[in-house]
């Protein structure tokens, strides 16, 4: 299984990026060819975080004693002050993880049978023509399981679409496709002069929220009356430490996104990104949220315990190369 851990734009050439999946600390960087590399964020020499180091010529140099590691297999390729007669043991390496980059997201493979053979979960809807993309990231003080459940029960407390009010009640039934749950909500263009509460009956929009707990991904679509997609977004919800979640999202806008919007909304839409995922979750609003579609997360073979990503996620190493975290300390 591929697990999204960062957005592509967060890992810049020549820079390191620290990430976590559950308790597993990672360091991400790009090698000389621009390919993404993911190592355990721990130097095999004295366990200093490698994310404190520097990328030199596409390889990662530890900040403490300057050991340098290749990103693809984790091998140590340079140790300062080594005599000509001394050689770096082949077993000396940082733990490297299988990784891939696709459609603006960076993934690591979760260990297990067929690890990494599945499709990548974050992408725009098939056949959707979009003209613009926004992206962002945040860390919220809500566990990934609670965040996914809240997305089903009340996405309006977690995100905003400029000029759109999203109702707190859903329409129709919750549908299940594979391991994903999907639910539609009424949405409406809103102007201050016309309070949206009085206009729900005239609503011509719907927000479709699909939550895939196995992949820890949320997909959203803003639909018009003809079910044409005006906007689509995907949010990777990565379990972090101490009950937090890291969010990495991308939003894709149709050229027709504002076609049905009131003139005032169209004028305001030019100011800033229309789509935003809140970097802080209001605890009171979260506590007040009534359980709705999320109860389906706990029925018929998809219990919260086994469908949501476990807090302890084991990632797939790039090879069978044996690591030696404590050896050669005298080098
Ligand atoms: S701790 Fe990294 S090189 Fe010594």
Automatic annotation (TrEMBL):
<dbReference type="InterPro" id="IPR017941">
    <property type="entry name" value="Rieske_2Fe-2S"/>
</dbReference>
<dbReference type="Pfam" id="PF00355">
    <property type="entry name" value="Rieske"/>
</dbReference>
<dbReference type="InterPro" id="IPR050584">
    <property type="entry name" value="Cholesterol_7-desaturase"/>
</dbReference>
<keyword id="KW-0560">Oxidoreductase</keyword>
<feature type="domain" description="Rieske">
    <location>
        <begin position="2"/>
        <end position="108"/>
    </location>
</feature>
<dbReference type="InterPro" id="IPR036922">
    <property type="entry name" value="Rieske_2Fe-2S_sf"/>
</dbReference>
<keyword id="KW-0479">Metal-binding</keyword>
<keyword id="KW-0001">2Fe-2S</keyword>
<keyword id="KW-0408">Iron</keyword>
<protein>
    <submittedName>
        <fullName>Rieske (2Fe-2S) protein</fullName>
    </submittedName>
</protein>
<keyword id="KW-0411">Iron-sulfur</keyword>
């Amino acid at each position: 299984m591929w697990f999204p851990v960062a957005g592509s734009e967060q890992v810049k050439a020549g820079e390191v990026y620290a990430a976590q999946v559950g308790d597993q600390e990672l360091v991400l960087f790009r090698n000389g060819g621009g390919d993404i590399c993911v190592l355990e964020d721990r130097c095999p020499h004295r366990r200093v975080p490698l994310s404190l180091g520097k990328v030199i010529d596409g390889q990662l140099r530890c900040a403490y004693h300057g050991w340098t590691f290749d990103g693809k297999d984790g091998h140590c390729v340079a140790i300062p002050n080594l005599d000509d007669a001394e050689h770096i043991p082949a077993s000396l390496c940082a733990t490297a993880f299988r990784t891939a980059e696709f459609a603006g997201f960076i993934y690591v493979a979760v260990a297990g049978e067929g690890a990494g053979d599945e499709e990548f979960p974050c992408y725009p809807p098939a056949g959707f023509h979009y003209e613009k993309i926004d992206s962002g990231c945040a860390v919220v003080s809500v566990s990934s399981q609670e965040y996914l459940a809240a997305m089903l029960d009340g996405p309006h407390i977690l995100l905003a679409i400029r000029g759109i009010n999203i109702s707190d009640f859903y329409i129709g039934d919750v549908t299940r496709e594979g391991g994903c749950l999907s639910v539609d909500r009424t949405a409406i263009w809103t102007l201050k002069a016309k309070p949206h509460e009085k206009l729900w009956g005239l609503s011509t929009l719907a927000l479709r929220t699909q939550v895939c707990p196995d992949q820890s991904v949320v997909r959203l679509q803003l639909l018009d009356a003809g079910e044409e997609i005006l906007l689509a977004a995907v949010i990777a919800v990565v379990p972090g430490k101490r009950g937090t979640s890291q969010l990495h999202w991308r939003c894709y806008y149709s050229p027709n996104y504002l076609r049905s919007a009131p003139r005032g909304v169209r004028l305001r839409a030019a100011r800033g990104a229309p789509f935003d995922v809140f970097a802080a979750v209001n605890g009171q609003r979260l506590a007040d949220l009534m359980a709705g579609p999320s109860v389906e997360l706990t029925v018929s073979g998809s219990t919260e315990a086994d469908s949501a990503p476990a807090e302890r996620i084991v990632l797939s190493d790039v090879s069978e190369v044996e690591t030696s975290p404590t050896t050669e300390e005298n080098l």
